[in-house]
Amino acid sequence: xxxxWAVMISVLLLSGTAAVAGGWADKFGNVDTDGSGTIARTExxxxxxxxxxxxxxxxxxxxxxxxxxxxxxxWATAExxxxxxxxxxxxxxxxxxxxxx
Length: 101
Known about the structure:
Number of domains: 1
Order of helices and strands: HHEHHEH
CATH class: Mainly Alpha
CATH architecture: Orthogonal Bundle
Distance between the termini: 16 Å
Helix content: 40-55%
CATH topology: Recoverin, domain 1
Radius of gyration: 14 Å
Shape: globular
Number of strands: 2
Number of helices: 5
Strand order of the largest sheet: 1-2
Largest sheet: 2 strands, antiparallel
CATH superfamily: EF-hand
């Protein structure tokens, strides 16, 4: 799993792709149910299945600073990783790439 995220992060850093408004930005508010501006692990566990994100990143993978919450910057980074995942898989020969991509 760590190798998959490392490859996706590398692709993103090389591509310089900016986050697109909408989409995930709207979903952040749906997961941040207490309106704190961050997503707690309990909020993620309760609401992430409703998001219809594929592949769905793990909370730990998104929590870059390991403070048990996801802020908007970490959320934007996760969005970039997930959007890059199918592109990375199409060009990858690694065994971590699911067959559907």
